[in-house]
Amino acid sequence: MNRLIACVIGAALLAGGAGLMIAKAQQAPGAALIAGDRPVTAEQVWEKLQSDGWSNIVISRNGRYIEVTGSRNGQAGKMAVDSQTGRVRAADDDDDD
User: Fold this and answer.
1) 62, 73 in Cβ contact below 8 A?
2) Residue 54 in contact with residue 71, Cβ under 8 Å?
3) Which one of 1, 32, 38, 91 has the lowest number of neighbouring Cβ atoms within 10 Å?
4) Residue ranges in the chain assigned as alpha helix (H)
């Protein structure tokens, strides 16, 4: 009976550990533009970028992403922010090189 209980507890711990590893692997690797991993609004993104020195900020929506273009230190930039987590989406390499 004790051996059965130990096996059940061990299997439960193993399954729980595997579940945590899978959940961790699925999290977005992008840097957090707005800390907290909570939903963010376009206004929050605009305010954060403006306080970071961005100018000529243009924001548009594409599904769950807030797409931003603007300039900082004289250089044009573009990024997409996940509106559910506040994290910057990893850069998509659309080059067919």
Assistant:
1) no
2) yes
3) 1
4) 2-26, 42-51
What rounded mean pLDDT belongs to the chain?
81
96: amino acid identity, one letter: D
**Tokens 């970028």 sit on residue:** 49
**Using 50, 70 and 90 to split pLDDT, how confident is the model at 96?**
very low
Distance CA 51, CA 41 (A): 16
Q: Which residues on neighbouring strands pair with residue 75, listed in sequence order?
A: 72
Asked whether the beta carbons of 28 and 85 are under 8 A apart, the reply is yes
Of residues 42 and 32, more confidently modeled: 42
